[in-house]
Amino acid sequence: MTKVNITLNGDTVEAEDGEMIIDVARRNGIDVPHLCWNVRFDRIGACRICVVEVEGMPKLAASCSTPIRQGMIVKTHTPRVLEARRMNLELLLANHDLNCTTCAKNLKCRLQEYAHDFMIQETPFTGKRKREDPDYSSPSIVRDNNKCILCEQCIQACNKVQTVYAIGLQNRGFKTRVSPPFDTKMAESACVNCGQCVVSCPTGALTEKSNIKEVIAALNSGKYIIAQTAPSIRATLGECFGMPPGTPVTGKMVTALKDLGFNKIFDTNFGADITIVEEGTEFIKRFNENRDLPMITTCCPAWIKFAEQFFYTELNHMSSCRSPQAIIASLVKTYYAEKIGKDPKDIVLIDVMPCTAKKFEILRPEFKGDADYVLTTVELAKLIKQYSIDFENLPYSSFDNPMGESSGAADIFGQTGGVMEAALRTVADIMSGQDLPSLEYTRVRGMETMKEAEVDIAGKKIKVCTVHTLGEARRLLEHIKEGKSPYHFIEIMACYGGCVGGGGQPGPHRKEILEKRAAALRKEDTMKSLRKSHKNPDVIKLYKEYLGEYGGERAHKLLHTTYTNRCIIKDCDKG
Q: pTM of the predicted model, to two decimals?
């Protein structure tokens, strides 16, 4: 693009012709307030908080959607600009529930932060929006339109990025609101529970549905309480306590859970190793038989529901293997219950996950209620704070056995490409009949939403692909449906960056932050001597003592599942 010079707050700066003002300002260290702007979404200029003064333009310009041109003179903080921002904030607040003590995003709400910065304690304007009851119908997400400022970030996340179209703008004028079509409830919509609307919402209009009260009751019930923690949590929980993004806190997390009163803490990574063993051998069987290819991974519950709703005719491509969470849950209520001589009804299992969709997953009838509650990363942090635990200064503890040891391959499950890389390590060994030194499959890593590679294993060419975001998954599935996909093995994750960018993770979810989280997981992998799932001695022991052979009758019963036609279009199963 053509390089141009503009004057920004009195300084001459270089930019590219057509860039938006806000991008040039931020690159030059000038923070322009904003509520509707997101680098990954369309620039719609809805909130008008980012307005700036441009010489020669009679009206203030929305910096997020105004392109620069040669010689432009921009001022970002003139008295006129500041007064306009104040008024726009007051107008937004007029229709926003000011009872911030009950807001789930209290102290982390950008609208609240800006109101504080502009010293706004009350608004002179009268809101015209009718108050409505919050929507608690979803197992994962609470929608409270009383706190909505119509910035449309949730709509862009749901419709533009995820292509789910569960919510949108309804009505006009003062009656405009965000909701599913025809004013239905979230539970009745196409929502796949991914929570990307939650992480996009700058206020408390969309939040995760909390299970903290139920978990506190369970911890005081006298029952045997077990927690399992997902791979990505160890690289994100520290941020909730002011630690830099990507700080590994595995040992502190385990200690905190013990201090909360959990009897045992198991590592979902152990379930990830089992997933790779089952999924890897399933892929090899399909590949050798040239059947139901490409095979697609099924660790992500939001992706699974998306496929069940929009691509039911292609479900034969999905692995039948349960997610690591569901595998641990199944083993806790069978294998471990038998091992310790307890009735499964006397065991309460709490899953700590990065994902709001996991709250939906545990309700699937196929899993028979093995897991009792799900806490997101953010919820666990809140629980730790409620118990006044000094997280930063906690000592390190280890996970409990027999489901506490895991490989480095399991650590990388929490990032896009990680499941594929872990699977290829095992697939390569089994197909070649050797303990191969190849461990790094770097071409499936990175933040590009679609990555592909061709791997030579035992003289055979295997084409693999990894995607994240459901919009990218939709494009891939359309090709599969049309018979145009060249791939043999595919990984799909619903959230940007994979689980490190899940709907239950702390914000913000900027690309550079997600990359630091992913880097922390890869570091955990490289620091372990055990880096292949099928080499985990505790996994080998479990199969020998309880599960039998890989993919065998008992393993299939406890570790695999089926899928459901949730198609929201009549007769979609007829193609």
A: 0.89
